[in-house]
Amino acid sequence: TTLATHTMWKDRSIPPLVEDWRSLNSAGKEIPRESFGEHLKIRVKETMLQPYKPENFLRLIQYDMQVFQRFITRRIPENSVIVIVGDHQPPLVTRRQHGTETIVHVISRDTTFLQQFSSDGFSTGFRKDVDAPGVITHADIFPILMRNLHATNQRDSLNSPLSRN
């Protein structure tokens, strides 16, 4: 889930992209467990005092996508399926009539598997096909994913040289 965009879009709320997240601690040293709450309170107060900048919303989305890209390319096995559920529209910037829809991305190296999602309104890339079927709910994601995984499993078992009577 993309939640970095929940940080009020202030300059200090956008962390640098680093190799080791622990290096983001103050001066690179660990914060003692007993003072972590106080440290967090100070950081939140400092962040809240910064000016609000709507353009940082896009920078936070870019940050999320860079983190996902690094994680997927460095840590995820090749045969994985990744589902990214986007964040809702920012209520401070958008009006109710703009909606609260979120974007869902399904990422896999199996292009045949991914093509199965087109009947559910998914399209290649990061833009929705405007002619595709309507909105799905979060509760719809799991059944769609399971149906398409099952269809892929069935297809793969038919193409497998192993068989069983």
Give an overview of the whole structure.
There is one protein chain. The protein is mainly alpha-helical and 165 residues long. The protein contains four helices and two strands. It has a two-stranded antiparallel sheet. It is globular and about 60 Å long. It starts with 35 loop residues before the first helix and ends in a 6-residue tail after the last helix.
Rg, Å, rounded: 21 Å
Number of helices: 4
What is the distance, rounded to the nearest whole angstrom, between the alpha carbons of the first and last residues? 43 Å
Sheet with most strands: strand arrangement: 1-2
Strand content bin: 5-15%
Q: Quick check: average pLDDT?
A: 76
| Mass-distribution shape | globular
Structural class: mainly alpha
Number of strands: 2
Question: Can you write the helix and strand succession as a string?
Answer: HHEEHH
Percent helix, as a range, is 25-40%
- The biggest beta sheet, please? 2 strands, antiparallel
**Unreliable residue runs:** none
